[in-house]
Structure formats: structure tokens, C-alpha cells
Design goal:
This is F-box domain-containing protein. This protein is α/β, with parallel strands linked by helices. 32% of the residues lie in helices and 19% in strands. The chain has a domain at 246-335. The protein is globular, with a radius of gyration of 24 Å.
Length: 335
């Protein structure tokens, strides 16, 4: 049976399994297959240092009809600042009428070029944006993004990015997921339907206070937030206190801290705070938060969650437990 007589839906399912090189080759054998293959080939584009990326970038720049197929664009970390693909980015993105997901992880792109690319995007088109670059600062750029793309549902920024002189307000009323630095919530007043948030405090940004950030975050999404991940230098007690007070209905919590828990008083304080979270079913302490077990004369991690009755999953330092019949059972060790 010829591919040309297949229903479009079935043909699309077949073409999804092909690599870009095979898609390009197949598109040349039939006028019927060509538009379907082109749409599949250009729906999701990743630009990196490979030769195919240079050809795709050139095609997108000079053939706007193909650019109109693109919904997902990733600029990979392996790409260099002087590559033809990076130089052409501002001209490429202005033709991407259907673009919804845009991701840049290339550290070598200059701040000026990155700003030019973001400004070249059509207004109000993005729903997902990822900027995982080490460019500093990005406060002004985030402020522009918020004003330009109010329909964002996911926003991922480098967690350790510095703000600069301008602290933006995340006035994104459709935002459901956020990853980035804590200062993004230092002046938050707008309600957002955030479901999952991952924030990091930087030792170089002391103005982002623990309680103020968590309180500001609660102002925007106290009723909707279910999963919270926090990374912060120093002791974690104040952070846990603020979280349990502001978000008693969290379902998942991950805490990353750089301080060893080796004090019974600290354990008691954490246990008291976590006991307030009646909906919490999953708790994770990042491996940088080191706890030792009783057999070594240290602290028993399970004491911390002893009164948090809803928790069913617990992990710390690469070790995981699950609660079965009200007993903690060791699951696996990852490190």
C-alpha cells in the first residue's frame, strides 16, 4: 500500500517516528506527502552545533511558509554565539507565527542578542518560555517578557540569575508553573493559578528575605499551589516555618539547604512545623541537606515526619522510604 492513500492522521503518526533527515528525504517523493512531512519536520526545531541545525535555520530564515509550522523551538546549550543559527535568530523568530514553546539554554549568547531575540517574538504568542542562561542581570528582560506574553503558562529562568536594578512583578494570570530565582516574588501582588513552583535564593541576593518571599508567593497562589521546591543557603528551619504557615495544603515539598541537621531542637522544630501540613504526601530533602541515622549517633530523619500523618513518600540523601501500613519501608538508595 502506498503512503499517499493513507488517511492524514495515520500518515502523521508514521512520520512522527522518522528522524529529520528521513522526513526531508520522504517529502521529496510525493506532492501529497510533502506538506504533511514539512509540517512534521518543522513543528519542533532544535538548533545545536550539528549540520542539520544550520540547514534548518537557513530554511526558516528564507522560507517564512515553513517557519509558520514551528510550535516548539529549542536553542541548545552546545550552540556557539558566532554560529549562523544564532546570528539568524532575530530574523527567524519574527516569522514563527505559531510558536508556543521557546527554550534557550545556550550560555554563550550575548545579553544584547538575547534581548533582541525576545523583542522579535510576536506579542502574546508564547505559552511556555525557558531561559536557562547565565546572563546577568535579567530583571529588565523578565519585566518585558511579562508585559509582552501575558498568556504564559510555564516560565523557567536560571535559578541563580541576578535581578539588577529593576524587580519585576509577575503579572501572569495564566501561569501554572514557575522555576527561577526567589526575587521574582519579592513584590508579588497579582493572583496566579500556579500549581508548581521551584525557587532558589542566591547568597549574592540578600534582599530576597525568606519570610517576605514566601508571604509574597502566598499572596499570588496560596489556594492553587500544590508542589513547592526551595533551595536556600543556610539553615532551613525558618524556611520550613514560613512554608507551613503560608501553604498548609501543599501536597509535595522539596527543601534544599546547606546546613547539617544534627540538633534535637532543630528536629523538634521541623517536626512541629511539618505536622501542620495535613495534605502533604511527599517530602524530599535535597542531598545537600545531610542527616545521619541513629546507628551513627546522629539524628533519625523519620522523627521529623513522625507527626505528619499524611506523608507517604520521603527521600533524603539519595535514600527513599514509603509508608506501608503506617510503617516506613526503605525503598531504594540512589547514590
Amino acid at each position: 500500500m502506498s503512503l499517499e492513500v493513507l488517511p492524514v492522521e495515520l500518515l502523521q503518526a508514521i512520520l512522527k517516528e522518522l528522524c529529520p533527515r528521513d522526513l526531508a528525504a520522504l517529502s521529496s517523493i510525493s506532492r501529497t506527502i510533502y506538506p504533511v512531512a514539512m509540517r512534521e519536520l518543522y513543528t519542533s526545531i532544535t538548533l545545536n552545533k550539528r549540520k542539520e541545525s544550520r540547514l534548518l535555520a537557513k530554511s526558516l530564515k528564507h522560507r517564512p511558509a515553513k517557519a509558520s509550522f514551528v510550535k516548539y523551538l529549542v536553542v541548545g546549550s552546545s550552540i556557539t554565539a558566532d554560529s549562523d543559527a544564532v546570528k539568524a535568530l532575530p530574523d527567524i523568530v519574527k516569522h514563527l507565527d505559531q510558536l508556543k514553546h521557546f527554550e534557550i539554554t545556550a550560555d554563550e549568547i550575548s545579553s544584547k542578542r538575547l534581548t533582541t531575540v525576545i523583542h522579535a517574538l510576536k506579542a502574546e504568542q508564547l505559552t511556555h518560555l525557558t531561559l536557562l542562561t547565565d546572563l546577568q542581570p535579567i530583571g529588565d528582560l523578565v519585566d518585558f517578557i511579562v508585559g509582552r506574553h501575558p498568556n504564559l503558562q510555564e516560565l523557567h529562568l536560571s535559578p541563580h540569575a541576578l535581578c539588577g536594578d529593576k524587580i519585576p512583578t509577575l503579572a501572569l494570570t495564566k501561569l501554572e508553573e514557575f522555576v527561577g530565582p526567589s526575587w521574582c516574588f519579592s513584590r508579588q501582588t497579582v493572583k496566579m493559578p500556579l500549581f508548581q513552583v521551584s525557587i532558589a535564593w542566591s547568597a549574592e541576593a540578600p534582599e530576597a528575605g525568606t519570610e517576605d518571599i514566601i508571604t509574597s508567593l502566598a499572596t499570588s497562589c496560596k489556594d492553587s499551589l500544590k508542589v513547592l521546591c526551595c533551595s536556600k543557603p543556610g539553615p532551613c528551619e525558618e524556611l520550613v516555618d514560613a512554608i507551613t504557615t503560608s501553604f498548609p495544603d501543599l501536597r509535595g515539598l522539596e527543601i534544599s539547604s546547606s546546613v547539617i541537621i544534627n540538633s534535637p531542637d532543630t528536629v523538634k522544630r521541623l517536626a512541629t512545623s511539618l505536622a501542620k501540613m495535613q495534605e502533604l504526601i511527599a517530602l524530599s530533602f535535597n542531598p545537600s541537606l545531610v542527616l545521619s541515622d541513629q546507628r551513627r549517633g546522629g539524628i533519625d530523619l523519620l522523627q521529623i515526619v513522625d507527626n505528619a500523618k499524611a506523608i507517604r513518600s520521603l527521600s533524603c540523601c539519595g535514600v527513599s522510604w514509603s509508608k506501608v501500613d503506617n510503617r516506613w519501608v526503605h525503598v531504594e538508595k540512589n547514590c
